[in-house]
# Entry
Amino acid sequence: MAAGSALSYRIRVINHGNTASDDWTLELRHVPRVPVYDGSGQLGTLIGSLAVPDGLQTGASVDLTIAATAPAGGGNWLVKTEVQLADGSYASPTGVVSMQLPLTTIAP
# Structure
């Protein structure tokens, strides 16, 4: 895809926690691609975000379409999902594994 272009992802969010969602934000972030999986703990650069509906109960799911902007430079990336919680912390340090999708951008 062209660097800096608009893109969107349809993502199913499933609440596997023990409390209902409350002021959660689904974020898409990019990091340089690695061969298998980025386990560095690095959040990456924010390319899109969308509020998760409040009140998503434990075990429930919702499909969200999130708009994003491809990285400005050409390269090979991983787009990672992350959930930011109401207190500003992130779900991944609690053991929630982020989905990681490959993305290649071509500079104009």
Q: What stands out?
A: Residues 6-105 form a domain with the Immunoglobulin-like fold (CATH 2.60.40).
